[in-house]
Structures are given as structure tokens and as C-alpha cells.
């Protein structure tokens, strides 16, 4: 049932192949935040269509497969909803035509992949792997957002289809390098390039369908999609080639090498995926029509064969209870269809004719040979091909043929829904390999045209005639088989020399995480000391800094000319308030302090009354009365006042207090010295009745002009009340509980 | 601390203070007063009763849990702000009835908002006072 949406989407996208190949413009647009240039615009062209077909097609197969793979799992429904959510975000990512929209979907894929990797949330390893993937790809996402914003500023638009034609302007801009680095950071983290590759093998904690779907066919290719999509804007410069190509090549080699050191079948596949991603990135770095074409064909081939291999790995794990290839063997007798599908897919990955993998690999060689300084890349590619051949033997030959392995489970012929996916994927790889004409004009050419912004002819052929690259393939095949025969001793020798576990990027990640936690703990410990007194000090000093900092650069004009206006009762009131304040500070008992504080409060309220602010005065009186009630309630619970602080501490507290008081005085004098036009009050007085139908300006400000502030304030009040309530109840509860049990 | 004078007086002060608080709330739009001060006066009425008769009696007089006032007030504030969205105006635009209502006069969303402030203030103060006087 759950497979219906992806199947329907696949059919829908398949019907778009014709219109896209004819280069029709298929755009959907809906205004979202037009003021910021962020719109819901979707655009279908060759590149997005290729990805959309992969996403929906693989999605359908994987969901059918998961129906059996997770049959009877209590959280199967949740799994399907995560899976479909991921598919929707991934489709959104490849179809989005607005940079910010693309970023939103980009992060949504990270989020849904977090849930999918951590699906088995009872295990700490799965949770850690999920968090690792989320943090690494999430950080890359933030970099990507920054890159998009910069690019949007340069191009004055966020629509990708418009940015694509501003390549020259962006490449010659001074901010080109930051944009490039930020976008690459996004793409490299998502597509697991060295040194960010470590999250991908860890993500193998996910169930097999997830690894198939996210970590081989779709999500990790989002980075490839991004760089391919933006290559008309960013590529073609020396810096692009100098960064992208070596990164890709190093990743390709690292993945190929590490794949040979592992025995867990899913990890082996994960490392070869990293290697393949590196190869794709390298091709994008090289650029040019042949490299682009090679990139697209190899991407398709890789999705097909790697998807099949991952699905087979899941079935093997399920049936035998182990993923360790050294313990597997002889499964051909119990699951022949699986064995054949796996063998076909593995041959495609090894680049053996007549599979699509061979077509792809030939193109890759051809692309590298066009590059002028190609010797290093050619060597890297050759080594990678050798590794791929060996890995094909390890994952496809070793588990199925030879002696029967020693494993806990009892293997049996899997049901239709489990073998359908691998068989279809491996089969289509073979069929397309024999008849490349099935895809060249319909899928590859429009996609290449979308990357190069001009119509492209793509003619794929299985047989290119005898060529230099054919020789390389043959050599790689022979060498790969040789390494396969010596695989066990190779592993033990290289495994003992492997420092990546101890000093590799995965450890950097751990150090970074512990470092961040330590810094956060230290900061929290310093700021959240638990002493109310300290909080007040920080707040007041901050306020002094902010107010003083903005006040002092300006020339102050204090209005001191109105001293003579002071009337006798005002003077008396001021003296009373000051005396009461001194009394509060010097008070020896709590009750004196409370009463003196009350005198200060009422004095201020009287001030309000004298200066015709009856609203404020009334509120102040009510507040003061309630404070007395509140203090009376808590007063007799508090211990008798003591001299808590030393004289030096009192001076330390007095300094900010007096500074703050002085600053407020200056502030008030400055404000009153302002001309009447600069103040806000006339505006409110004039607009209160016509606009808000109220004569009481204070109240109109509260409920109408600044109503949003009031809403925030009442919310804060409520939160404070809930805080008081819960703290007291919690305290009572913990105090009463022992009594109840007695 | 029971005082006969206080407990006798609060019996009459409570309704009077409550009346005053509602009066302050209603006149607030054109004359000194408003939801905030009205809520404070209303709360002090119950606080006084609480001091005189104890927290249990004060709770019985109020009948409703003060936290309900808080929630209702916040909800009312949000609703009064959202009403203008329905007619296509920005959030919290004031809407007014064209004709006056008996006693209340013209009513509009700011008045509803003021009532919401009243309820929240009443609820907050009473929640704190009741929690403190329990135990």
C-alpha cells in the first residue's frame, strides 16, 4: 500500500521524459515570502528529472522491500512515514528552483535521515550514528545557506534558473571564493567527501532499506546534484578545478582503500559508495562535456548496482544473522535468485561488459584522458577500479559460492518482495548496458544539457572499439582478481598499519564534540551560578554598558535650567525616598527592609501622581500593596537577616548600583531636553482617539499601539507564575513524599 | 493570625473591590484604569480574603482554579489578535462594532484584549499568592 505514492510519482515523472527531452519549460511557482525573494518555485529539467526518477523508482522498490524486511516490526508504520517524508524532501530538493527552498529541503533530508538512521533507537550505536550524520550534514547545510545568501546578494535573485545565467558576474566577484567554499562545504558533507566521509560508514547502523535508499542511491547524491546544478555558475575557474578535482580524487582513493580493510558487508559497500561519490565529484571538477556525461552515466549505473547490492546485503543479514563476509559462503543453494541478481550487480560495479557499469567506467577513463595533467588521476582511477573488482568478488562471490559458511541463521529462499528490488535494479543495469540507446537521448542528454545550459548530443555505446581505456579495464580486472585471491593477507597487513581509526576524522569529530560540551559547561557554570545577586549584577552591568555605550558618543545636552520650578512638596518627597532607600540598604531586620522598600514604592507612586500620570500611580499603588502581601507571606519563612556580604563586596555592589542610577538620571535629563517633535508622546496623544477610539492614551498604547508587547508581557507573567507554582509544588511534593511512605 | 475586624471587613470588601476592579477595567479606555490595574485590584481583593480567612476559604470563594484564568486570558488575547486576520487585516488590527452596546458602549477587539490582560494578571497574582500561602 505504502508503495503506491512512489509508484504513482514514478509514472508521473516518467511521463515528463518526453516534454523535458524536447526542452519544454516546466515551472511551478507560488509566492511564499516575496519580500525576501523566497518563493515556492519548482522547475523540472533534465537533471532534476533524472534524480526524480531515481528517487521515486528506487523509493517504490525499497518500500516494497521494507514491507517484508520489517514485517511484524512494531514500528513499521513509523518507518514508512519517515521513509515517505524523506522521499518528499528529496524530491523537493531536486525540483526546487529557489535557493532558500532548496536549502529547506536539504535540511529536511538531513532531519528525516536522522530519524531513519536512528530508527533502531534502542541501540546507542544507532543513536550516535544518527546524531553524527545530522551534525555533519547539518553543519554543511548551514554553510550552504550562507553560500546561497551571498550568491543571492551578488545576483540580486534567489531563483536558481536566473542565477545560472549570472555565472560570469559571480565568478568575477570578490566574494566568489567564499561562495565557492561555502557551497562546496555543503556538498562535500552531504556527499561524504574526505574528511567528512566518516558519518557514512557509521550510518550503516540503519536498517538495510535505509542504507540502500539514503546512503547509496539518493541522499548522498544530493551533494553531487548541488554541485552539478550550480556548476554553470561556479565551475570553469582555476580554483574550482584546483579544489574540487583533488578532493574527489582523494575521496575516491580513500574509500577504495578502506573498503578493502573491512569485513562487514555493509561497511564495505559504504566505503565503495564513498569512493564512487569521490569519483563523481572528481568528474565534476574536471568539467567539460565528456566528464559531465561520464558523471551522469556513472551516477545512474552506481545507483542501480549499489542499490541492488545493499538490498542483497540486507537479505543476507536477515537470513544468516551476520554481515561478516569471512563467515559467509555457499548461499547460492538456498537463494539462487538473490545470488544471480547480486552477481549481475557486482559485475556492473566491477565494470565488466556488457553492464552499464562498464559503459560508465569507460566514459570516466575517457574523461580523465582529456584532462591535460592526467597521470595522477589516471593512476588513482586505476587503483580504484582494482579495488572495485576485488570488492565485487568479496560481496558477491564469497557469500554465495564456495564452502557453506558458519553462521547462526538458517537461510531460505526469500519471498518475492525481497528479491524483486535487487533483481529489477540489477536487471535494468544489464539491459541499459546492452542497449544504452534506451537512456542516452531521453535521460542523459537532457540532464547534461541542464548542466551545460545548451542542447547536448549524447550517444552512448557499449563498444568503443579497441582503445587505451579498454586495456586499463582489462588490467584492473586481472589485478583485482589477484588482490581478491590475497585479500585475507592484504587485510591483515594493512589493517595493522591503519591509523585512521585512531587519528582519523571520526576522532576529530569526537574531540570537537567533547570540546564544545566542555566549553558549554564552563560557560553555563560561570553564568548560571545560582546566586540571584550575581544575576542582578550581570544584568545591571550589561545595561550600563549598553546604555552608556550608545549615550556617550553623542553630545549630551542636559536641561538643568528648570531647577527653580521644583516645588516644596516635591522636594520633601525626594528627600523621603532617598532616606528610605538608605534605610533599605542599611536595614538590620527584614521587616525594616520591607517597610522601607514600601516607602520608596509609594513615594515613586506619589511622584507619578504629581506629574499627572494617574494610571501609573494607580498601578504602582496596587503593586506595592500586593508586594506587601506577598512579602508578608514569605517573610516569616525566611531566616533572620544576616550580614552576608563583606564590606569589600558591598562596595563592589554599590559601584554598579550608583553608576546605573547616575546613568538613568542622565538618560532622563537627556530625554526631557529633547525637542517636543522628537518625542513619541505627541504622536500617541494625537492618534489615540482618531485611530484607536480611546481617550486614555496610556491604556490605548498598552492594548492597541503596542498590543504585541503587552501580549509578550502577559505571556512572560504567566510563565513566571507557572514557574513559581511548579517550584513550590515540587518542593512540597518532595517534602511530603517521605511522610506518605512512612 | 486571625483578626475579627479583618475577617468581618473583608466579607464586605471583597465584593466592593471586585466591583471596583471591573469598573477600572471598563473605564480604562477613556479614563485612568485598564486591564492591568483592574486585574491587580481584583487580585488584591482575593489576597486580602486569603489573609483574613486562610487559603482554603479563599479558594472556595474563587471557585475556579486561578490557573484557568491565566490560560483563558492568554487564549482570549491570542483570539482577539487573530480576529483581524479573518477579515484580511494584519495581526492585532483593532476592530470595532459600529453600534454601541448597552452599559459597555462600543466594543472592539482591543477591549477584548484588555479583558484578557485583566484575566491573566488576576490569574498570575492569585496563582503565586495561593501557592505561597499553601503548605
Secondary structure blueprint with pairings:
The complex is a heterodimer of chains A (742) and B (135).
Chain A: H1 4-15, H2 17-21, E1 26-33, E2 38-44, H3 46-69, H4 76-95, H5 99-117, H6 124-155, H7 160-163, H8 167-171, H9 176-190, H10 199-202, H11 208-217, H12 222-234, H13 238-259, H14 265-286, H15 289-320, H16 336-350, H17 356-370, H18 375-400, H19 416-434, H20 437-452, H21 468-485, H22 487-496, H23 500-503, H24 505-527, H25 532-551, H26 568-586, H27 590-610, H28 614-635, H29 647-673, H30 681-692, H31 697-705, H32 707-741
Antiparallel strand pairs in A: 1-2
Helix pairs in contact in A: 1-3, 3-4, 3-11, 3-15, 3-19, 3-20, 4-5, 5-6, 6-9, 9-12, 11-15, 12-14, 13-14, 13-18, 14-15, 14-18, 15-16, 15-17, 15-19, 15-20, 16-18, 16-19, 17-19, 18-21, 25-29, 26-27, 27-28, 30-31, 31-32
Chain B: H1 4-27, H2 35-53, H3 55-62, H4 66-86, H5 109-133
Structure description:
The complex is a heterodimer of chains A (742) and B (135). Chain A is mostly helical and 742 residues long. Chain A is 74% helix and 2% strand. Among the domains of chain A are: 1-234, no CATH class; 252-488, no CATH class; 498-528. Chain A has helices at 4-15, 17-21, 46-69, 76-95, 99-117, 124-155, 160-163, 167-171, 176-190, 199-202, 208-217, 222-234, 238-259, 265-286, 289-320, 336-350, 356-370, 375-400, 416-434, 437-452, 468-485, 487-496, 500-503, 505-527, 532-551, 568-586, 590-610, 614-635, 647-673, 681-692, 697-705, 707-741, and strands at 26-33, 38-44. Chain A has a two-stranded antiparallel ribbon. In chain A, strand 1 and strand 2 form a beta hairpin. In chain A, helix 27 (590-610) runs antiparallel to helix 28 (614-635). Chain A is elongated, with a radius of gyration of 35 Å. Chain B has one domain. Helix content of chain B is 72%, strand content 0%. By secondary structure, chain B is an all-alpha fold. Chain B has helices at residues 4-27, 35-53, 55-62, 66-86, 109-133. Chain B is elongated and about 55 Å long. The two termini of chain B are 16 Å apart. At the A-B interface, helix 28, helix 31 and helix 32 of A face helix 2, helix 4 and helix 5 of B.
Amino acid at each position: 500500500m505504502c508503495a503506491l505514492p512512489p509508484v504513482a510519482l514514478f509514472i508521473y515523472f516518467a511521463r515528463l521524459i518526453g516534454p523535458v527531452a524536447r526542452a519544454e519549460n516546466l515551472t511551478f511557482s507560488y509566492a511564499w515570502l516575496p519580500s525576501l525573494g523566497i518563493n515556492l518555485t519548482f522547475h523540472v529539467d533534465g537533471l532534476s528529472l533524472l534524480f526524480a526518477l531515481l528517487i521515486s523508482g528506487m523509493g517504490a522498490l525499497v518500500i516494497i522491500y521494507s514491507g517484508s524486511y520489517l514485517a511484524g516490526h512494531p514500528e513499521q508504520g513509523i518507518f514508512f512515514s519517515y521513509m515517505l517524508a524523506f522521499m518528499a524532501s528529496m524530491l523537493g530538493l531536486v525540483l526546487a528552483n529557489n535557493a532558500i527552498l532548496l536549502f529547506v529541503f536539504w535540511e529536511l533530508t538531513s532531519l528525516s535521515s536522522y530519524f531513519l538512521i536512528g530508527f533502531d533507537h534502542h541501540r546507542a550505536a544507532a543513536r550516535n550514528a544518527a546524531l553524527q550524520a545530522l551534525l555533519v550534514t547539518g553543519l554543511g547545510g548551514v554553510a550552504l545557506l550562507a553560500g546561497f545568501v551571498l550568491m543571492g546578494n551578488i545576483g540580486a535573485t534567489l531563483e536558481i534558473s536566473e542565477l545560472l545565467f549570472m555565472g560570469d558576474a559571480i565568478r568575477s566577484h570578490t566574494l566568489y571564493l567564499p561562495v565557492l567554499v561555502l557551497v562546496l562545504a555543503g556538498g562535500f558533507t552531504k556527499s561524504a567527501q574526505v574528511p567528512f566521509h566518516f558519518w557514512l560508514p557509521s550510518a550503516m547502523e540503519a536498517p538495510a532499506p535505509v542504507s540502500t535508499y539514503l546512503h547509496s542511491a539518493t541522499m548522498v547524491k544530493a551533494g553531487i546534484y548541488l554541485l552539478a546544478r550550480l556548476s554553470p555558475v561556479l565551475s570553469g575557474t582555476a580554483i574550482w578545478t584546483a579544489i574540487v578535482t583533488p578532493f574527489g580524487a582523494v575521496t575516491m582513493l580513500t574509500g577504495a582503500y578502506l573498503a578493502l580493510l573491512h569485513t562487514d558487508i555493509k561497511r564495505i559497500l559504504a566505503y565503495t559508495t564513498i569512493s564512487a561519490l569521490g569519483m563523481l565529484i572528481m568528474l565534476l571538477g574536471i568539467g567539460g562535456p565528456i566528464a559531465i556525461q561520464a558523471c551522469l552515466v556513472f551516477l545512474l549505473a552506481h545507483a542501480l548496482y549499489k542499490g541492488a547490492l545493499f538490498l542483497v546485503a540486507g537479505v543476507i543479514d536477515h537470513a544468516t544473522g551476520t554481515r561478516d563476509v569471512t563467515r559467509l559462503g555457499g548461499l547460492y543453494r538456498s537463494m539462487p535468485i538473490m545470488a544471480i541478481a547480486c552477481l549481475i550487480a557486482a559485475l556492473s560495479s566491477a565494470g565488466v561488459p556488457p553492464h552499464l557499469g562498464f559503459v560508465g567506467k569507460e566514459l570516466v577513463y575517457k574523461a580523465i584522458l582529456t584532462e591535460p595533467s592526467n597521470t595522477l588521476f589516471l593512476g588513482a582511477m586505476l587503483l580504484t577500479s582494482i579495488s572495485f573488482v576485488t570488492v565485487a568478488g568479496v560481496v558477491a562471490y564469497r557469500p554465495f559460492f564456495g564452502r557453506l559458511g558458519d553462521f547462526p541463521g538458517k537461510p531460505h529462499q526469500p519471498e518475492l518482495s525481497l528479491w524483486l528490488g535487487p533483481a529489477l535494479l540489477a536487471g535494468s543495469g544489464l539491459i541499459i548496458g546492452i542497449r544504452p540507446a534506451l537512456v542516452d537521448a531521453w535521460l542523459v542528454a537532457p540532464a547534461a544539457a541542464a548542466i551545460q545550459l545548451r542542447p547536448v548530443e549524447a550517444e552512448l555505446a557499449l563498444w568503443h572499439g579497441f582503445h587505451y581505456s579498454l586495456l586499463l579495464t582489462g588490467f584492473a580486472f586481472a589485478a583485482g582478481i589477484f588482490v581478491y585471491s590475497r585479500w585475507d593477507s592484504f587485510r591483515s597487513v594493512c589493517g595493522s598499519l591503519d591509523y585512521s581509526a585512531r587519528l582519523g576524522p571520526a576522532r576529530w569529530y569526537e574531540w570537537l564534540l567533547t570540546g564544545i560540551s566542555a566549553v558549554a559547561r564552563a560557560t553555563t557554570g560561570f553564568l548560571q551560578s545560582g546566586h540571584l545577586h550575581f544575576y542582578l549584577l550581570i544584568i545591571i552591568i550589561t545595561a550600563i554598558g549598553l546604555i552608556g555605550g550608545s549615550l556617550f558618543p553623542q553630545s549630551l545636552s542636559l536641561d538643568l535650567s528648570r531647577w527653580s520650578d521644583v516645588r516644596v512638596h516635591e522636594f520633601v518627597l525626594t528627600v523621603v525616598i532617598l532616606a528610605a532607600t538608605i534605610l533599605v540598604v542599611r536595614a538590620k531586620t527584614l521587616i525594616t527592609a520591607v517597610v522601607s522598600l514600601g516607602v520608596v514604592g509609594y513615594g515613586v507612586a506619589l511622584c507619578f501622581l504629581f506629574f499627572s500620570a494617574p494610571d501609573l500611580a494607580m498601578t504602582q499603588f496596587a503593586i506595592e500593596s500586593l508586594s506587601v502581601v506577598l512579602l508578608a507571606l514569605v517573610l516569616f519563612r525566611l531566616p533572620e537577616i544576616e550580614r552576608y556580604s563583606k564590606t569589600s563586596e558591598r562596595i563592589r555592589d554599590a559601584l554598579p548600583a550608583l553608576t546605573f542610577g547616575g546613568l538613568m538620571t542622565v538618560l532622563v535629563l537627556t530625554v526631557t531636553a529633547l525637542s517636543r517633535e522628537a518625542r513619541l508622546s505627541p504622536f500617541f496623544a494625537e492618534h489615540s482617539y482618531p485611530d484607536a477610539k480611546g481617550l486614555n492614551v496610556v491604556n490605548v498604547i498598552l492594548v492597541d499601539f503596542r498590543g504585541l508587547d503587552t501580549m509578550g508581557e502577559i505571556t512572560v507573567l504567566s510563565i513566571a507564575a507557572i514557574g513559581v507554582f511548579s517550584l513550590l509544588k515540587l518542593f512540597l511534593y518532595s517534602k511530603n513524599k517521605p511522610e506518605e511512605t512512612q | 493570625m486571625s483578626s475579627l475586624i479583618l475577617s468581618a471587613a473583608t466579607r464586605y470588601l471583597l465584593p466592593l473591590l471586585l466591583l471596583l476592579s471591573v469598573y477600572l477595567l471598563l473605564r480604562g479606555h477613556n479614563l485612568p484604569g485598564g486591564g492591568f490595574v483592574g486585574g491587580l485590584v481584583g487580585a488584591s481583593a482575593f489576597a486580602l480574603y486569603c489573609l483574613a480567612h486562610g487559603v482554603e476559604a479563599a479558594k472556595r470563594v474563587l471557585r475556579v482554579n486561578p490557573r484557568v484564568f491565566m490560560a483563558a486570558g492568554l487564549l482570549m488575547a491570542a483570539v482577539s489578535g487573530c480576529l483581524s486576520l479573518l477579515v484580511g487585516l494584519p495581526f492585532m488590527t483593532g476592530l470595532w462594532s459600529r453600534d454601541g452596546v448597552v452599559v459597555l458602549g462600543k466594543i472592539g477587539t482591543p477591549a477584548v484584549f484588555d479583558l484578557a490582560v485583566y484575566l491573566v494578571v488576576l490569574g498570575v497574582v492569585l496563582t503565586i499568592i495561593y501557592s505561597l500561602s499553601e503548605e
